[in-house]
Specification:
CATH architecture of the largest domain: 3-Layer(aba) Sandwich
Strand content: 25-35%
Number of helices: 13
Number of domains: 4
CATH class of the largest domain: Alpha Beta
Largest sheet: 7 strands, mixed
Distance between the termini: 96 Å
Shape: elongated
Radius of gyration: 44 Å
Helix content: 25-40%
CATH topology of the largest domain: YojJ-like (1
Strand order of the largest sheet: 2-4-3-1-5-6-7
Structural class: alpha+beta
């Protein structure tokens, strides 16, 4: 229990964002691919991964190695085998529906397919007869039907009533989202009130509506009209919305859609909770499992220093951090992911003492700070000043015995230097970089840099970092 409390209290906001983001991605995969073969295979892959983690925890080296290979190969197989299914799912949706939209899985989609197919057949003057049974049994009134049992699609309906199809003259019986029979023979109405321009197809539709509670849609081959037969009457439907409304009322979509919607919401909530729990478990197993302790020496960075001041000295340049985390995360740490920064915004001239706290340390997600050595850093600051210092040549080596140096001059003779006041007040001259004297000729010029010691010194603007040395020698016997 104490371990769990420690893990929860050590969570950072980055860790929560990490878990939430990956959980949402997993949830989106469920929303997009639920009901597909690819999704079922993904569930199997997840179970294999869980089994592999169990094998690792139990020390089953060969088993975990084999399962890991299967999981890796399975990911490639999913992409290759189900690429068409994955592409069709992604192409059928826009960016909004992919990122946060949730498609509904109710009977309404079946009604939309039926209405779209009926409207298309009406526009093409393709005759059709579709029967939607009610609560009453139609076996005694319908004859010669051929069992079909195919899931409804636009292509299926259009192909059934294609003029060259042998079954196109009969009626198609539709229950739910299935076409259960085709080429069914319906009883003809004997009513004298049917307009003369209606043929056998419309009499059959009205005949079934007179003897049952079924709803029948007839598409006229001659006029392209859509006629609905129900409750012993015929009704011409010209508007798409009206036809959808009639089908919804007959199929009880309002009540069924409510039940389906509640069931679907429960499924989505369960999927969201599972995504969060699963990813949280994975995150803890990766970032907190198999703890490893390691010490890293990290340089101290100083930020927000007043431009008018300069760091004169520090008690340490690096601190040792004791870090804890999983072996995999510890090994993956990059140097730029661990930083120690001290804010000098409130620092003053003189000696300043800073305590290094977790706020001063940046760590990658999943890594826990266990200790800092040293935990206190002393930083001495001083104000900057400019000072003009004469330049002196720093000769090194030995002049050949037959030469005598008679003249040496430096241009410019002095340079302006910027540095800490305490340092510059003690300086009376500044040297050039070392100039080897044993390479001198009778006369010549040499261009060298000014040597800045300590390194915190800088050449002021307007002064050159280079000086020119003009020298002259003579032979001793002259």
């Amino acid at each position: 229990m104490d371990r769990l409390i420690y893990l929860l209290t050590s969570l950072r906001w980055q860790d929560l964002v990490d878990i939430a983001l990956v959980s949402y991605i997993l949830f989106r995969f469920y929303v997009l691919f639920r009901g597909t073969n690819a999704f079922r295979v993904l569930i199997g892959m997840a179970l294999l991964w869980f089994f592999q983690q169990m094998a690792v925890s139990l020390g089953l080296i060969v088993t975990s190695w084999v399962v890991q290979g299967i999981v890796t190969l399975g990911a490639f197989i999913i992409i290759v085998i189900f690429r068409n299914e994955i592409r069709s799912v992604l192409q059928a949706r826009n960016l909004r529906s992919i990122l946060w939209g949730i498609s509904s899985k109710t009977v309404l989609s079946v009604i939309e397919i039926i209405v779209q197919s009926v409207r298309e057949m009406a526009q093409n003057h393709c005759g059709a007869l579709l029967v939607f049974p009610g609560k009453e049994d139609l076996e005694e009134v319908i004859q010669s039907g051929i069992a079909w049992n195919g899931r409804i699609s636009r292509e299926m309906i259009l192909s059934i009533f294609w003029p060259n199809n042998p079954v196109h003259d009969g009626a198609a019986i539709i229950r739910g989202d299935q076409v259960v029979q085709v080429s069914a023979i319906l009883p003809l109405s004997r009513s004298d009130d049917i307009p003369s321009y209606y043929g056998t197809r419309h009499r059959a539709a009205l005949g079934l509506a007179e003897v049952s509670d079924a709803l029948v849609i007839a598409v006229s081959e001659e006029r392209g009209d859509v006629v609905v037969a129900r409750k012993s009457g015929l009704q011409v439907v010209k508007q798409k919305r009206r036809l959808e409304q009639i089908l919804r009322e007959h199929m009880g979509v309002a009540a069924r859609r409510g039940r389906d919607a509640r069931r679907e919401k429960l499924q989505l909530v369960a999927a969201a909770l599972f995504s969060v729990i699963f990813i949280t478990g994975v995150w803890f197993s990766v970032s907190r499992g198999g703890h490893t302790l390691v010490s890293l020496d990290v340089p101290v960075e100083y930020t927000n220093r007043d431009p008018a001041m300069q760091i004169v000295s520090t008690s340490v340049n690096t601190v040792s951090l004791e870090l804890e985390g999983s072996g995999a995360l510890i090994k993956s740490i990059k140097p730029d992911q661990v930083q120690v920064k001290l804010d000098l915004k409130q620092a003053k001239v003189g000696l300043n003492t800073f305590s290094i706290t977790p706020k001063n340390i940046s760590l990658p997600p999943g890594i826990i700070l266990k200790g800092v050595t040293p935990s206190v850093v002393d930083v001495e600051l001083d104000v900057l000043m400019k000072k003009k210092l004469p330049v002196q040549i720093d000769w090194v080596g030995r002049l050949p015995d037959h030469f005598i140096l008679t003249q040496a001059s430096v241009v410019p003779e002095a340079v302006k230097v910027i540095g800490a006041r305490r340092i510059l007040e003690k300086m009376t001259t500044i040297y050039t970089e070392k100039v080897p004297i044993d390479n001198l000729k009778l006369q010549g010029t040499i261009t060298v840099n000014v040597a800045l010691h300590p390194a915190s010194l800088k050449i002021a603007s307007g002064s050159s970092e280079k000086v020119t040395i003009t020298y002259q020698t003579r032979l001793r016997n002259q």
